[in-house]
Write a structure and sequence with these properties.
With 282 residues, the chain is an alpha/beta fold. It has six helices and eleven strands.
């Protein structure tokens, strides 16, 4: 099954935006895009993003100041972060039974001689239907380990390269009195978003009515700091941040490595899987 990524700042993966890259091994397809942006090579990428109100009018601007990998290593960092996530999400559950695990076969199927057939000692032999499997698949752990700072740099590099297609909006969780998908689509159009394009919303807290109003829009992803991941960033054509989400990004992926406001607990599970959880300390 193939996976298609549509990443608007495709210069991370594509040196020539008119060419297609096809990987037979991973079966991942990268679509060429007309709008491309260059990777910032500074230690920290600073961008000014306008702030839109609930009515769609510009009420100010904010600054997104996050780290970005150098130009010569940006592609490798993002690629490693993406492939790590895909491998860690793979469940190696394929399993077969060997001849020692197949039920039955305690007696000889037929006499050794005078049958004209090849001698058989057990029904569990791989040569017979229902027997064991020779060198068959067994449950396997496909996960790989990635350094915490490298994974963080991959996310911040992807965000900084996609900042040209990002907008910041005011908090709108209390604007929906009841779930209404039609009103949410009208809100997206007031912000200049096409409901047919893939969009990613990053909010620190998501109201229940907002979730119910947006869950029927298949092109939309509603994420929190805890669920922010590299694949959804690369798979989106538009990024929408709330003001509190921008503060989180500046605090988490900015110059200052001291997480004063946002505390993350990281637990390393078996197989090298790393699960991050974000909590806001009041």
């Amino acid at each position: 099954m193939s996976t298609s990524l549509s990443f608007f700042s495709s210069t991370i993966f594509l040196s020539n935006p008119k060419s297609n890259i096809h990987s037979q091994k991973q079966r991942v397809f990268f679509k060429p895009l007309t709008a491309t942006t260059t990777i910032r090579s500074e230690a920290a990428a600073t961008a000014t993003i306008p702030i839109l109100s609930f009515d769609g009018t510009e009420v100010g601007s904010t600054t997104l100041n996050i780290k970005s990998a150098p130009l010569d290593t940006a592609r490798a960092v993002v690629h490693r972060g993406l492939t790590t996530d895909l491998r860690n999400a793979r469940a190696g559950t394929a399993s077969t039974l060997t001849r020692a695990q197949v039920r039955g076969g305690g007696i000889k199927p037929y006499p050794q001689k005078k049958t004209g057939r090849a001698r058989q000692g057990s029904k569990r032999t791989p040569l017979r239907p229902g027997g064991g499997v020779v060198f068959g698949p067994k449950p396997k752990d496909w996960s790989v380990k990635i350094n915490k700072k490298e994974k963080r740099l991959a996310i911040s590099t992807a965000l900084s390269s996609a900042v040209e297609n990002a907008i910041v909006v005011e908090e709108f969780g209390d604007k929906f009195d009841k779930p209404k998908t039609k009103e949410f689509i009208e809100l997206m159009r007031r912000w200049g978003l096409d409901p047919k394009e893939k969009a990613l919303f990053l909010m620190t807290e998501i109201d229940e009515n907002v979730i119910l109003s947006s869950r029927n829009i298949r092109t939309l992803k509603m994420l929190t700091p805890r669920t922010l991941n590299l694949f959804d960033i690369l798979d989106s054509e538009k990024l929408v941040f709330t003001k509190s989400a921008v503060e989180f990004l500046n605090e988490r992926y900015g110059n200052d490595d001291n997480d004063n406001e946002w505390e993350f607990e990281e637990q390393e599970e078996d197989g090298g899987k790393v699960e991050e959880s974000a909590e806001s300390s009041e």
